[in-house]
Design a protein that fits this description.
two-stranded antiparallel ribbon, 45% helix
Length: 503
């Protein structure tokens, strides 16, 4: 008897896929899967269905009918199956298991979609760029890149988004909501992924590694940007000057050079900055904070980059080399300025006398000739100077300091330039040559004085008798004639020396 019931339960078999059915009607409905026949039509949207009950359920979309209600949270559903799936949220039941990683899922469809992670299957293809996706909704969202569709709009600032989730995250900027908190340092984040990345700072985990140089990174995006160092890719281009950048943020900051925008304002003074980092460094002027310390000489710096440059003094590293003369430099900017000696470029021009300069700072110092400004004053004798270096050298007159020592004799000098000229006594070098008589000189100033013999120039004039002199010292000696001051007070001494020599 039981065998007859069993046979009667599944007595109708599909000749195509061997599926078995209890009724002839069920087999007939099933066969429409193979034939593609959909005899039941929706009068509203013309959708076709293989079974009448599927049409009945579909009609609820148009009527809004949701006859299946959850007794726990009162949510309503169009089908009993959707309610059954929903109840698993409350019960925690996940009857569908992944055989690969043992993940559990509340719905069979979720498991089927999850399996594509393991198989690599991407059945949904973009007809424009051929990108593949594991989910149909991901393809639909992707298509908005090509169509420009942004159906989700922020009611506060009117920003538009292609995804509902992106709008939800954006709204937290307006509400200030930061639902994800770090248990270690109590930092709060708007996005769970940002919290996950942040936690790696505490754990030291760096899961993303560069295959080229083995550098490790906390974020996948940081690795992607880093790879552009190796590939040379610069996908972000300035429409004004065609400069290219590896990061979108760098382009955005660069654009401010053209617009003049400086959105970051110092709260303690009127200074404004294009970059937030520059403002942060500027604030240290007010606070006196110098967080970067040299481990060798204990010097402190407000910027990390300045410490890095300073360390090259200790290491002797000079990574920037001139291709023309092989000179090496600590800074890239110094090399760039140096190259102008070879190219002859002088981009900084004085508006008063049209003199041109290689460096902007040299022009600024030069302008003091016209303005008469001398901002550096000696505290001892009140002498004033146009340059800080000149004041520093002058101070040595009072202190007697002579830091520049000759390596060939015991001579010492207050100025480095004086040492350089002195060295020529030992080497016999005379780099300054007269173009008229070929006389050679160790100092440029001596050549300049010598040239007056050929030109006849006598720039120093006596206001009393109008006599002209080539050198200022000659004029000074001459003025003693008018003042009846004896030029040389050591004539007696000299005769004494000569007498000593005869005894």
């Amino acid at each position: 008897m039981e065998e007859k019931v069993q046979n009667r339960e599944k007595s109708y078999k599909c000749d195509i896929c061997m599926s078995e059915f209890t009724t002839k009607g069920n087999l007939r409905d099933h066969m429409r899967i193979h034939s593609g026949e959909k005899p039941y039509k929706c009068d509203v949207c013309m959708s076709g269905f293989a079974r009448r009950d599927n049409l009945r359920i579909h009609m609820r979309i148009h009527t809004g009918e949701k006859p299946c209600k959850c007794d726990v949270c009162m949510s309503e559903f169009t089908t009993k199956g959707n309610l059954r799936d929903h109840m698993r949220i409350h019960s925690g039941e996940k009857p569908y298991k992944c055989d690969v990683c043992m993940s559990g899922f509340a719905q069979k469809g979720y498991l089927r979609r999850h399996m594509r992670i393991h198989t690599g299957e991407k059945p949904y293809k973009c007809g424009v760029c051929m990108s593949g996706f594991t989910r149909r909704d991901n393809l639909r969202i992707h298509m908005r890149i090509h169509t420009g569709g942004k159906p989700y709009k922020c009611d506060v600032c009117m920003s538009e988004f292609s995804q509902k989730g992106s709008l939800r995250l954006h709204m937290r900027k307006h509400t200030g909501e930061k639902p994800y908190k770090c248990d270690v340092c109590m930092s709060e984040f708007t996005v769970k992924g940002t919290l996950n990345s942040h936690m790696r700072k505490h754990t030291g985990e760096k899961p993303y590694k560069c295959d080229v140089c083995m550098s490790e990174f906390i974020r996948k995006g940081t690795l992607r940007v880093h790879m552009r160092i190796h590939t040379g890719e610069k996908p972000y281009k300035c429409d004004v000057c065609m400069s290219e950048f590896t990061q979108k943020g760098h382009l955005r900051q660069h654009i401010r050079i053209h617009t003049g925008e400086k959105p970051h304002k110092c709260g303690l003074c009127e200074a404004r900055f294009a970059k937030k980092g520059n403002l942060r460094e500027h604030i240290r002027i007010h606070t006196g904070e110098k967080p970067y310390k040299c481990g060798v000489c204990m010097s402190e710096f407000t910027q990390k980059g300045n410490l890095r440059l300073h360390m090259r003094k200790h290491t002797g590293e000079k990574p920037y080399k001139c291709d023309a003369c092989m000179s090496e430099f600590i800074r890239k900017g110094t090399l760039r300025v140096h190259m102008r000696k070879h190219t002859g470029e002088k981009p900084y021009k004085c508006d008063v006398c049209m003199s041109e300069f290689i460096r902007k700072g040299t022009l600024r110092v030069h302008m003091r000739i016209h303005t008469g400004e001398k901002p550096y004053k000696c505290d001892v004798c009140m002498s004033e100077f146009t340059q800080k270096g000149h004041l520093r050298q002058h101070i040595r007159i009072h202190t007697g300091e002579k830091p520049h020592k000759c390596g060939l004799c015991e001579a010492r000098f207050a100025k480095k330039g004086n040492l350089r000229e002195h060295i020529r006594i030992h080497t016999g070098e005379k780099p300054y040559k007269c173009g008229v008589c070929m006389s050679e000189f160790t100092q440029k100033g001596n050549l300049r004085l010598h040239m007056r013999k050929h030109t006849g120039e006598k720039p120093y004039k006596c206001d009393i008798c109008m006599s002209d002199f080539m050198q200022n010292c000659n004029l000074i000696n001459h003025m003693r004639i008018h003042s009846e001051e004896k030029s040389y007070k050591y004539n007696v001494s000299m005769s004494e020396f000569s007498n000593e020599g005869n005894t």
